[in-house]
Amino acid sequence: ALSRSAAAVAVGLINTAANLAGAVGSPVVAELRGSGLGDRGSLLVLAAAFAAGAAFVSFVPVTRRSADHP
Fold this sequence. Notes:
By secondary structure, the protein is mainly alpha-helical. The chain has helices spanning 4-34, 39-58.
């Protein structure tokens, strides 16, 4: 379990990542479509980017606290 301050930081980080994805995603799709890639190809590029991000996050080491350290 996270402390309240750690949970607030986590929510803020998630919100920042979502805002960044929203700000960058639309221009990227517009650029891809402008270069001749269709809707399907553009969405596949975005899906690949999200999958790469998920793979990156899955390799971040997480340390677990023992029961005697709250």
